[in-house]
Design brief:
globular; single chain; 0% strand; mainly alpha
Length: 212
């Protein structure tokens, strides 16, 4: 299995290089994006984030009423629900005085369960926040990753925790590796490993069980 994971990573790196994911100006913007991207396309998230203008800050979200937030994030869909989630996520961040280094001094094994207990934060959202906003080595599994594992010959169960463990046991425990690997999976899924795959010139075409 280790060789399979490393083959994916090697072939993706040759094709895509360092993608420097996640696109955001601040760690808090990453956190907001992780909430807003639930059940919507990233382009809609970008529109919602742009609507904040200079107000994309924990204090603004904490003090704004739900209707104001819902209007701002309307392009991201499920805006009433996500407005609540932005507030609960921000309240969690407030426990650490909105300070990134303070969060980073805590152990991952403490922070992840904390985030998972916050309304609106599931496993993918929690891991995205921890990896991309706070630089913790925790692998993010999304629908693209599950699709890859359903097509490429990696022997593991296809649930979130099994796939996450598979990556983390077969890769260096590295924020940079986890960050770029997940980004490359996303890019490849958009270019090749779509619901109806476009296998021509895919970096994994030689090995994929569902090619063609």
């Amino acid at each position: 299995m280790k060789n399979n994971i490393q083959t994916i990573y090697k072939n993706f790196t040759i094709r895509y290089g360092d993608l420097r994911w996640w696109p955001a100006k601040t760690p808090y913007e990453v956190m907001v994006g992780a909430i807003l991207t639930q059940n919507t396309a990233w382009g809609n998230v970008e529109k919602a984030i742009a609507n904040f203008g200079a107000n994309l800050s924990p204090k603004f979200v904490q003090n704004a009423d739900i209707s104001t937030l819902a209007e701002i994030i309307h392009p991201a869909g499920f805006f009433n629900q996500k407005s609540v989630y932005l507030k609960t996520m921000t309240d969690w961040f407030a426990r650490y005085d909105f300070d990134v280094p303070t969060v980073q001094r805590e152990p991952l094994k403490k922070l992840r369960p904390e985030l998972l207990s916050v309304k609106g934060i599931g496993k993918e959202t929690a891991d995205s926040i921890l990896l991309y906003a706070f630089d913790f080595p925790t692998f993010v599994v999304d629908a693209y990753t599950v699709r890859l594992f359903n097509r490429y010959p990696v022997e593991t169960k296809k649930d979130y925790d099994s796939i996450k463990t598979c990556f983390e046991e077969n890769l260096p425990k590295s924020v940079e590796v986890y960050n770029n690997f997940h980004a490359m999976i996303v890019i490849n899924a958009k270019e090749h490993c779509r619901k109806k795959p476009l296998c021509t010139d895919c970096p994994l075409a030689e090995f994929c069980e569902k090619r063609g």
